[in-house]
LysM domain-containing protein
Amino acid sequence: MKDPKNGIFQVSIVVFLILSLSGCVTMELGNPEEDKGDRIEHKPPITELPERDYLGVYHTIKPKETIWRIAKTYDVVIDDIIKANSITDITNVEKGEVIFIPGAQGIKKVFLETEEMQKEFIWPIKGQLISRFGQHRAGQINKGIDIRVRKGAVVKAARTGRVVFADYLPGEGYMVILDHTDEFYSLYSHNAKLLVELGDLVFKNASLAHVGQRDNSTFLHFEIRRNAISDNPLYYLP
């Protein structure tokens, strides 16, 4: 028999997650063709590296390395790397690119993902990052990230978990919340159709929903929360 106290606690957590949701913001988005200026332009290898006024090292990106993994290896906040290198899309970096790691004192070998790291999150969908965690939009603070995609694109589970919420919310569209059973939750909203039901156990990369359209904008709002407190998803995504 299930412990009723556990059920009440889980319901309370889900209610708190929903009530504290304020990251989904309506915004006018232009033609994707007009956003090319926001994307990284891969330039020829740098032969003369610019001098910096503060401590750090230059790191050459190798195959399978990601900005997130590099930040973890050097124990540097990922946002510091993004700012120091004017990176607009951390999913669009290539091997051979040279980036500056602020605060680092020596070049390190980046540890790549192993089987022991399978509990880590993956991107729920591939698209253009149009709003970051903590950005102010229409008087609200984004508690997650917004990813522009085509209408109907399939949303994937960022990690294995159990569905603790799957329903429609006014202003948010159809939403899915997964409980990963280790203090972490992930939230997916602005969907037009759900592919899972309350109580389902879903594995990482399983299909959850189809992205919908809102005010002529088509994007997924994604959040990662630890102990019901919102955290920057870019700290966890590869």
Q: What stands out?
A: Confidence is low (pLDDT under 50) at residues 1-5, 23-47. The first strand starts at residue 56 and ends at 60. The chain has two domains: 10-34+119-235, 51-115.
